[in-house]
């Protein structure tokens, strides 16, 4: 998917991804996409990803490159983006994520991006991105929160609970 603008999207209570919702197991490439002024409007836990909610299943490879995510809000996790990866690789390269907000104070961060890695075989690469002025918490007392990473490990009995691999290089936060 490339070269589109998603603007002023709204997801009501119980739904995530006001601008874009991708929930599957196939490879995905998003390039040169703008997601602006979208709102996931319900309560914590049910409305994640104000701009986009993207989860990928076993062995999937997700590339998000040269995109702009700005001015989005979620009452759940990930004001700009909620990215979930079970297994495989996420490459998040040359993107701008600015002025997004998540309204939950349960998790300290994730106003710009909430990244959840479900298995130790997942790898996330975040290279050369701009993450500025993303916040979380109440509107009256917002806190800085460009990026939040949650690593669940495997939760498989009789296996080591190892962390996933996250490579973060040359990003600009502010």
What's the overall geometry? globular
Counting helices, strands and paired strands, the structural category is: mainly beta
Give the ordered list of helices and strands.
EEEEEEEEEEEEEEEEEEEEEE
Low-pLDDT ranges: none
Query: Which bin fits the share of residues in helices?
Result: under 10%
> What Rg, in angstroms, do the CA atoms define?
15 Å
Supply the number of helical segments. 0
N-to-C CA distance: 29 Å
Strand content: over 45%
Strand order, sheet with most strands: 1-5-9-13-17-22
How many β-strands, per DSSP? 22
Largest sheet: 6 strands, parallel
Query: Mean pLDDT, rounded to whole units?
Result: 87
Overview of the molecule:
The protein is an all-beta fold and 174 residues long. It is built from no helices and 22 strands. The protein has strands at residues 5-7, 10-11, 20-24, 28-31, 34-36, 39-40, 52-56, 60-65, 68-70, 73-74, 81-85, 88-93, 96-98, 101-102, 113-117, 122-127, 130-132, 135-136, 143-144, 147-151, 165-169, 172-173. The strands form four sheets. The chain has a six-stranded parallel sheet with strand order 1-5-9-13-17-22, with no helix packed on it. The protein has a six-stranded mixed sheet with strand order 2-6-10-14-18-19, with no helix packed on it. Strand 18 and strand 19 (143-144) form a beta hairpin.
Main attributes?
174 residues; six-stranded parallel sheet; six-stranded mixed sheet; globular
Summarize, please:
This protein has strands spanning 5-7, 10-11, 20-24, 28-31, 34-36, 39-40, 52-56, 60-65, 68-70, 73-74, 81-85, 88-93, 96-98, 101-102, 113-117, 122-127, 130-132, 135-136, 143-144, 147-151, 165-169, 172-173.
